[in-house]
Amino acid sequence: MENIAILGSTGSIGCNALQVIKLHKEKYKVFALTANENIDLLAQQCVEFEPHFAIALNQEANQKLKKNLLALNSKTIVLEGDESLDWIASHKDTNTVISAIVGAAGLKPTMAAANSGKKILLANKETLVMAGELFVKAVNHSKATLIPIDSEHNAILQVLPQNKKMNYKSNGIRKILLTASGGPFRTFSKEELLLVTPKEALRHPNWVMGKKITIDSATMMNKGLEIIEAFWLFDIPASDIEVIIHPQSIIHSLVEYIDGSTLAQLGNPDMRTPIAYALSHPERIESGVLGLDLIKTKKLDFEAPDLNKFPCLGLAYKALDMGHNAPTVLNAANEVAVDAFLNESIRFNQIAELIEFCMDTIKSEPLVSIDTVLDVDKKTRYLALSWIDSHKLSA
């Protein structure tokens, strides 16, 4: 029986993971569940899956969770304190950690899992974006297992030879191709993008996701973050990572080999598929997802991304080229910018402007520890908020 801790159980990834686990109760036991403040759903999950531990990061919500579970006669222990996530992620009885917390908040507990040699199913992009070198070193040092849940990186993993290391040098890879839906504004002109609203940006054509990742998809920063992830996951240079627009979201990514072969992983756009593969890797288990109907699909379209309309994609390549703390700055500035856009403090086009300003302003320095990463993150957020104060609702 594999004990699983889900960090971020009430989000899209967490809920889908629980659906897959529910199909395989003989294999997997939910050991711990965490959320931010969606207490009603977290309480329901605790009653259904009976984890040993649970925690809500919002203190007020956590007290409410305690009362709710007590009234429901739940045996789940509700933890308290800022270090509880790290404690759960590194607990001796935790075998697998599903890192599904959105944003920088997922960094420390995911690092704790890495340092403890856990099997890590990674959906938290920010861990690799903010601290890729430190995180990979921790994984290798402790001999932890790292498996991506992102549909794109999971797709790459699925078409790599399974008897070799997860990197391009030992697999005869020429390049990898990350597919992108193009988001809701793929066909918009640059002028039309100036006027888009948060409500419009939250209407993703293919995927149902949280607000932050949905806005990232609209700006194509989501794909930019995935470029940085791929750089660290597969030990492949940025010049060999290509992004292609594929509106149907049927091909989740491709790998081109040196012999001219290109292998792709196809499937319906449903996160249960990569989650199931990550849980059972290198075997396969039932995910609850129907097989792909190629006749109904009819056609697959592809086009090159427009970096002029979607500059966030280019900023991700720029961050990798700059190295050191630049990806950390990019991530922090993006989180602040997305929040400001959702609150209608800045316009859609200003998201990229703010990110580039922070990348060009924050001094470049190597990341020698997690404390250094968090310090850069803090400085960037302060700078970004100052920029927003002076640019609110400007054209």
UniProtKB/TrEMBL annotation:
It is an enzyme of class 1 (oxidoreductase). Keywords: Isoprene biosynthesis, Magnesium, Manganese, Metal-binding, NADP, Oxidoreductase. Signal peptide: none annotated. Its cofactor is Mg(2+); Mn(2+). Residues 4-132 form the 1-deoxy-D-xylulose 5-phosphate reductoisomerase N-terminal domain. Its EC number is 1.1.1.267. It comes from the Bacteria. NADPH binds at residues 10-13, 38, 124, 126, 210. One of its GO terms (molecular function) is manganese ion binding. 1-deoxy-D-xylulose 5-phosphate binds at residues 125, 151-152, 181, 204, 217, 222-223, 226. Pathway: Isoprenoid biosynthesis; isopentenyl diphosphate biosynthesis via DXP pathway; isopentenyl diphosphate from 1-deoxy-D-xylulose 5-phosphate: step 1/6. GO terms for biological process: isopentenyl diphosphate biosynthetic process, methylerythritol 4-phosphate pathway involved in terpenoid biosynthetic process. It catalyses: 2-C-methyl-D-erythritol 4-phosphate + NADP(+) = 1-deoxy-D-xylulose 5-phosphate + NADPH + H(+). Mn(2+) binds at residues 150, 152, 226. Residues 266-381 form the DXP reductoisomerase C-terminal domain. Residues 146-234 form the 1-deoxy-D-xylulose 5-phosphate reductoisomerase C-terminal domain. Catalyzes the NADPH-dependent rearrangement and reduction of 1-deoxy-D-xylulose-5-phosphate (DXP) to 2-C-methyl-D-erythritol 4-phosphate (MEP). NCBIfam families: Dxr, PRK05447.1-1, PRK12464.1. Belongs to the DXR family. HAMAP family: DXP_reductoisom. This is 1-deoxy-D-xylulose 5-phosphate reductoisomerase. The gene is dxr.
